[in-house]
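Narrative of accomplishments. A recurring question from our advisory board has been how the design workflow behaves on a single, concrete structure rather than in aggregate. To address it, we present the structure tokens for one chain from the evaluation set, followed by the sequence designed for it. No filtering or post-editing was applied between the two.
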């Protein structure tokens, strides 16, 4: 969660922003998003965090079903996306201020994301396993790589990750970073667009060459009997996608100021669009029998007719081995969820810390895979600030009106469409229908989240009672503190080492979340009447700028006249 935002002045050094220079819209949207985050997170203080992504809890009825459905299709996946956009906006503000003042940017920002990573690690290990801060820190590093990383650094990273992947036990950690670095490099080519050596933009040239290579290899499967035929269709599909992306990269390279927006939207659509297409093919294709079942049939028939050939026996053994590995992985997943549930519902605090610490060691690999999605969101947020849209929101209300009018129904509508296919998933099972539904839901989350943020900005600038949404600004200014405090309160209330109210109904969870946010809004107002920053915001700034910001608001003596700055 980023919280450094404001308008720009060339005379000020790179330091924490005075209150007068903050962009109120960002604070209000951040406060609104924090309410949605709380509504979403409450579910995973009452069931295992390892079930994130499994849809609605099965067996809900009545008002609990209605509450679960509302969160699943109107809240989940929308509000962490808003926070990702806000993080990119805060990054752009800090970068622009550094450029304007001629101050160093990279060192303070590296300290900033390092501190965020520490906050995330502490949050995950000592409070709750559903932390998002560490994910943002890793995503911010990849964003810096896209904007400033040279080819030598990226190549070195690829070689290092490839080497680590060859070490037993390290492939799951280092392997996901390889495609993340490759995609980050492609984003860098597009953003920088150095055409001094080529007639085509570098990214466009690379994508078209890759498309041609895929098409050639697919063609070879028609003439070379030794090549696997099963790869032909995926290669042709990949060639088509690469050719389209290469053409778009060439056509939409100007203006340069629009590249972050276009790159971010493309990354999101590419990831979840391809995922939707692949899962749709799997879901709609005729169901094939399990390979092991086919092999067993072959074995049975061979005992009657003739002994199995060496090739048939090898295929049967391979099918049986694959099935055994899948069954083992499913059993492990189910056992992990059961153990996680036991520890957080009835275990001691020490057990929970040790358990989450072991889980945290598995996060780097997952975060590298997620980072490219976050980079896309950060780039879109960067565009909103660098274009001046957020700094002067009042002048862009027609744009926000369109984004809300079209983004919300389209984005939420896609999720509702997915709900007609499947709404929940049983851990440890293969479920193409649910995967398709989730892919469609995620595809719609970006337009929905932008639409939600636009709606809040329209409310803020309205002449009606809806402008009272500005009350969320102090809540948003203390987003980091409030986010961590939400987790601490919920862990103490629900977990076995606390008050032990594990298993609260879904509707009651929503009431609890809204009450908690209401208390935090009041406390945020009271706190910021006396102090400039929330406690964690103050610490974050101190690490970022390597100086202790003034914390308490100094009151002028009675009768004294305030002097202008």
């Amino acid at each position: 969660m980023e919280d450094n935002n404001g308008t720009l002045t060339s005379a000020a050094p790179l330091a924490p922003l005075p209150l007068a220079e903050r962009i109120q819209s960002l604070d209000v949207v951040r406060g609104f998003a924090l309410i949605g985050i709380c509504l979403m997170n409450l579910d995973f203080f009452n069931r295992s965090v390892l079930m994130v992504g499994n849809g609605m809890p099965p067996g809900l009825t009545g008002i609990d079903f209605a509450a679960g459905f509302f969160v699943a299709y109107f809240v989940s996946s929308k509000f962490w996306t808003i926070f990702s956009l806000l993080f990119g906006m805060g990054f752009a503000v800090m970068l622009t201020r550094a450029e304007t003042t001629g101050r160093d940017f990279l060192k303070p920002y590296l300290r900033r994301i390092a501190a965020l990573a520490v906050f995330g690690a502490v949050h995950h290990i000592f409070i709750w396993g559903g932390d998002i801060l560490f994910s943002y820190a890793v995503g911010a590093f990849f964003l810096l790589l896209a904007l400033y990383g040279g080819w030598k650094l990226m190549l070195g990273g690829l070689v290092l990750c490839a080497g680590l992947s060859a070490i037993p036990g390290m492939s799951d950690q280092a392997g996901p970073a390889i495609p993340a670095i490759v995609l980050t490099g492609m984003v860098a080519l597009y953003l920088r667009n150095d055409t001094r050596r080529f007639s085509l933009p570098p990214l466009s040239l690379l994508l078209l060459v890759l498309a041609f290579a895929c098409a050639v290899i697919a063609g070879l499967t028609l003439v070379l009997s030794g090549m696997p035929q099963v790869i032909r269709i995926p290669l042709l599909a990949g060639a088509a996608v690469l050719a389209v992306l290469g053409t778009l990269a060439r056509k939409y390279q100007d203006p340069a100021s629009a590249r972050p927006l276009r790159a971010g939207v493309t990354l999101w659509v590419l990831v979840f669009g391809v995922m939707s297409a692949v899962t749709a093919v799997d879901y709609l294709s005729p169901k094939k029998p399990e390979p092991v079942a086919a092999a067993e049939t072959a074995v049975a028939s061979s005992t009657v007719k003739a002994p199995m050939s060496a090739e048939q026996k090898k295929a049967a053994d391979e099918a049986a081995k694959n099935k055994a590995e899948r069954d083992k992985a499913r059993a492990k997943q189910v056992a992990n969820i059961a153990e996680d549930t036991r520890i957080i519902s009835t275990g001691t605090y020490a057990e929970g810390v040790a358990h989450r610490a072991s889980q945290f060691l598995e996060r780097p690999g997952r975060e590298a895979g997620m980072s490219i999605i976050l980079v896309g969101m950060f780039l879109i947020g960067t565009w909103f600030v660098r274009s001046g849209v957020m700094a002067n929101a009042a002048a862009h209300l027609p744009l926000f009106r369109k984004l809300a009018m079209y983004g919300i129904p389209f984005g939420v509508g896609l999720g509702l469409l997915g709900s007609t296919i499947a709404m929940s998933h049983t851990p440890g099972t293969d479920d193409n229908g649910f995967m398709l539904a989730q892919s469609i839901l995620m595809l719609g989350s970006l337009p929905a989240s932008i639409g939600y943020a636009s709606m809040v900005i329209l409310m803020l600038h309205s002449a009606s009672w809806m402008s009272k949404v500005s009350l969320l600004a102090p809540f948003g200014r203390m987003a980091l503190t409030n986010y961590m405090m939400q987790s601490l309160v919920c862990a103490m209330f629900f977990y076995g080492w606390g008050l032990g109210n594990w298993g609260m109904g879904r509707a009651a969870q929503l009431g609890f979340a809204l009450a908690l946010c209401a208390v935090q809004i009041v406390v945020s107002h009271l706190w910021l009447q006396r102090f400039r920053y929330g406690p964690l915001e103050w610490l974050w700034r101190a690490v970022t700028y390597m100086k202790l910001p003034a914390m308490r608001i100094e009151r002028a003596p009675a009768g004294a006249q305030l002097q202008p700055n």
